[in-house]
Write a structure and sequence with these properties.
The complex is a heterodimer of chains A (403) and B (186). Chain A has two domains: 366 residues, no CATH class; 35 residues, no CATH class. In chain A, the strands form three sheets. A four-stranded mixed sheet of chain A has the order 1-2-4-3, sandwiched between helices. In chain A, strands 5-6 form a two-stranded antiparallel sheet. A two-stranded antiparallel ribbon of chain A has the order 7-8. Chain A is 59% helix and 8% strand. The radius of gyration of chain A is 25 Å and the shape is globular. Chain A is of the alpha+beta class and 403 residues long. Chain B has a single domain, classed as LemA-like domain (de novo design (two linked rop proteins)). Classes of the chains: A alpha+beta (403), B mainly alpha (186). At the A-B interface, helix 3 of A face helix 1 and helix 5 of B.
């Protein structure tokens, strides 16, 4: 795994430096355009300050930013015991130094991501739609995939890429708006006589238009290989590749797309949230391999180690060498495991149990009162309920409410 | 003459460097095994602590299952008597089996199964069993990394000099419960 870790470190560094170059070029040309001759250096200095702040934010607060823009809420063990237990189980399987913080996003589209700068301070976020639609084994597969990203240090690179790309897009947008509405001072001051001002204006416009495209290009630094490695890690940690395979099937079959996902955060998710259904299964995207292929590789694995995943990958794609060599040596000879909820009814029961815990969590969060009725139903009273009595919908019993 | 001396010095330095590297990686691997076992131990201890609670809850419902209950209590106390890791692993396996029987028997007590207390305990114990399994999986991987380094050339030279031992795998099934081959270098 160390090649992957080293590659992620190297790419993070290149990414930060490339952003610096891009931002300063943008700052210089915008400065020349708006401020006139000689103001480019002020623009450059301003861009350097912006870059420094952005980098510091990604380094110290990046995960918090990512979680905030995704609308994630932190949860504890009492809130969702099953989810908490599953994350703890996978932390142990991966031998992570510390259990990641767990977040839930209230979104019907099933998806998940991991973020954080280091494994010690990582976080895993899942949508409520994911918890409502998966069985315990499927959830375990998804969580193991995310824990795989944490262990392989993919999260750091994705974090930098997300924050920096997002910031560039915003800055370029501001610059462009300024040009359309404000115009350049240089134009009015030197009435078209200066040729270099015109050239710089063109450069500024071109750069401002190109910046978002360049920001998108950053993501080509993030290869699809990290998704394959995380899938393989999931199979190794759970020793039950079918769990992740059928979870991916459910996620890609869902018609819903996460409402909070943006172009900047899309590569973090387990399944690319920006793709339409057909494209997702068949082609994938720059950052995510096609889901259909990922499922096929998982399903035709002959064992549950990295070697089995590699063989299955070669069989499915005709290509070789998707996993780093260090993953293939020192591979534990641990055999497959029978799932906890192998049978269909047991799986359905575990899914219902998960869904109920999610509902309970959001009812509690919304300030609902819970009144257990003798017939076994639990009445959920909204905080703005006016009447002093509530009738059980099942047995018709009257309950008086405390004000 | 000077060149020969320098070459000898260079080779000696390279050898020492290599030696230090191998020694340090052996120490690192051994610490990893210890750390991984500590994780297993935390979960085993948690299960150990949950059992009195479970017995208290179950007692009131299961009047005809004295043997099953006693088997669990006995298996639990056997763990306290186990000294070294291989004995401990055996004793823990006994407890896993006894608990499995208890949960199987509990299927025929609907009142017990409906009890909130029992449901919460069952989720905790089932998840703890899972955690033991996953922690064991990671422990075994670290043991294999260490054993490979201890047994394979040239690591075995350094391992023999400083008495690095093979560690025991944590296996649960009976047929794989055989002694790991002990390699001696003295």
């Amino acid at each position: 795994m160390w090649e992957q870790i080293a590659a992620n470190r190297r790419k993070s560094f290149v990414l930060v430096m490339a952003t610096a170059a891009l931002l300063m070029a943008l700052g210089y040309s915008l400065g020349e355009y708006f401020g006139g001759r000689g103001f480019g250096w002020y623009g450059l200095a301003a861009a350097a300050v912006v870059w420094l702040i952005m980098t510091l934010i990604s380094w110290f607060q990046g995960d918090q930013v990512m979680l905030a823009v995704s609308g994630a809420h932190r949860i504890e063990k009492e809130d969702l015991p099953v989810l908490f237990n599953v994350v703890e189980e996978m932390t142990l399987a991966a031998g992570l130094p510390q259990m990641p913080a767990i977040y839930i996003i209230d979104d019907p589209a099933p998806n998940a991501f991991a973020t954080g700068r280091r494994p010690e301070t990582a976080a895993v976020a899942v949508t409520s739609g994911l918890l409502r639609s998966l069985t315990r084994d499927e959830l375990q597969g998804v969580i193991a995939h995310e824990i795989g990203h944490i262990r392989n240090r993919d999260i750091q690179l994705m974090l930098f890429a997300g924050v920096l790309a997002g910031a560039i897009v915003i800055l370029a947008e501001v610059g462009l708006r300024g040009m359309w509405f404000g115009g350049g001072r240089s134009r009015s001051r030197r009435s078209g006589g200066n040729e270099s001002a015109g050239i710089i204006a063109v450069i500024a416009i071109v750069l401002a238009i190109l910046a978002p495209i360049l920001a998108r290009l950053i993501y080509f630094a993030i290869s699809r290989k990290r998704e394959y490695l995380a899938d393989a890690s999931s199979a190794v940690f759970t020793r039950y590749p079918e769990g992740l395979a059928s979870a991916l099937e459910k996620i890609s079959a869902s018609a819903q797309r996460p409402t909070h996902a943006t172009r900047a955060t899309a590569p973090m998710y387990i399944v690319d949230p920006m793709l339409r259904e057909g494209a997702m299964a068949a082609q994938g995207s720059a950052t995510h391999p096609p889901v259909g292929q990922r499922i096929q590789i998982l399903r035709s694995m002959g064992g549950t180690d990295f070697g089995a995943y590699q063989d299955s990958y070669t069989l499915a794609t005709g290509k070789k060498g998707v996993l780093p060599p260090s993953a293939l040596t020192g591979d534990g000879g641990v055999g497959p495991r029978t799932a906890a909820t192998e049978s269909a009814p047991a799986g359905e029961a575990s899914r219902r149990n998960l869904a109920r815990q999610v509902d309970d969590f959001f009812y509690r969060k919304g300030g609902y009162d819970r009144i257990p009725c003798d017939c076994g139903t639990v009445l959920k009273i909204p905080p703005d309920f006016q009447s002093s009595h509530a009738t059980c919908p099942r047995c018709g019993k009257e309950h008086s409410l405390k004000s | 003459m000077l060149i020969v001396l320098l070459i000898i010095l260079g080779v000696a330095l390279a050898l020492i460097g290599w030696f230090v590297g191998v020694y340090n990686s052996l120490v690192g691997l051994r610490n990893q095994v210890k750390e991984a076992w500590a994780q297993v131990d935390v979960q085993l201890k948690r299960r150990f602590d949950l059992i009195p609670n479970l017995m208290e809850t179950v007692k009131g419902y299961m009047h005809h299952e004295r043997e099953t209950l006693e088997a669990v209590t006995q298996a639990r106390s056997a763990i306290g008597g186990a000294g070294n890791i291989p004995d401990r692993i055996k004793a823990e396996g006994g407890l896993t089996a006894a608990l499995g029987r208890l949960f199987a028997v509990s299927e025929s007590y609907p009142d017990l199964k409906a009890s909130q207390n029992f449901m919460a305990l069952q989720e905790e114990l089932t998840s703890t069993e899972n955690k033991i399994g996953f922690a064991r999986q990671f422990y075994n991987q670290t043991v294999m990394n260490l054993n490979n380094k201890v047994q394979m050339f040239p690591g075995n030279i350094v391992a023999g000099m400083f008495n690095f031992q093979n560690e025991t795998f944590f296996e649960v099934t009976e047929e794989v419960e055989r002694e790991a081959p002990k390699v001696k270098f003295d």
